[in-house]
Amino acid sequence: MAATYTLDVVTPERILLSETVTQTIAPGAEGQLGILANHSPLMSDLIAGEVRADLADGRTTVHIIISGGFLEIAPDGGRTTILADSAERSDEIDVTRAEADLAAARQMLADAGGDIDKEAQARQAAAFAETRLRASRGGGPS
Fold this sequence. Notes:
The chain has two domains: 5-90, ATP Synthase, domain 1 (Sandwich); 93-136. The chain contains two helices and seven strands, in the order βββββββαα. It has helices spanning 95-111, 116-136, and strands at 5-10, 15-28, 31-36, 42-55, 61-73, 79-84, 87-89. It has a five-stranded mixed barrel. Helix 1 runs antiparallel to helix 2. The longest helix is centred in the C-terminal third of the chain and has 21 residues, at 116-136. It starts with a strand and ends in a 6-residue tail after the last helix.
């Protein structure tokens, strides 16, 4: 049996996942992060994308779409925590809402008028909405 660790995925509103897993793939700011049991301690920024976690049962993979946040691997390697700004399990995605969020983000980008902070916020919102739509249609991250 593969070595395991605890993965917690948390937003300000709720705990999306707190399970024993064998592997996690997360969208790091510098590229995809692969985490196995006993990984070295780490803190990393996360971008909008898909978190994939293989549960310890060996049969189940959980897909969670995050808007960004932080990942921390505890010094003992026994717990990994993802603190996400917002997140949804792929089986909970409301496609109509995601489409509306994408349209709103595109409008926000058009209305940013050169404001770098507003443009960055709009791009992040658009990336999150696009990732949610892709996941709801069964597609992987891009």
